[in-house]
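Mods, move this if it's the wrong board.
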Amino acid sequence: MAIDPYLGALDLARSYRCSETAPTEIVDGFLTRIEALDPKLGAFQAVYADDARLAAESADAAMRSGHRLGPFHGVPFAAKDVVDIVGRITTSGSLTMADRVSPATATIAQRLLAAGGILVGKTKTMEFSMGGWGTNLTMGTP
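Not the wrong board. Structure tokens:
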């Protein structure tokens, strides 16, 4: 299935409920799109393709067995690289934090993941989310 890159979470939930598509198809579509476009755009700091695919497979299985968590279940999302995810590097757009592994998961990420959201990666940010021009010369402009 060709994915509509502008499809919202509620539209995805409806398409899952009606069995028009499945989280594995959507996640694979988004990962393919990221792979094709990100070398030019440079939007992503990190992509978690393998973990996203595993989460999508789990969402598929849960939905097939009637276990839907709600409208966000199976919806792919990306977190800004200032949002901590336990065990993942959070650079906050700074070379000084290039190896900083998050000790905990931020509340926003906890809630999205608990609702069944599928984290596909982290997007670039201005250094420490500060700056008037929206550029980051050292880690890549978001």
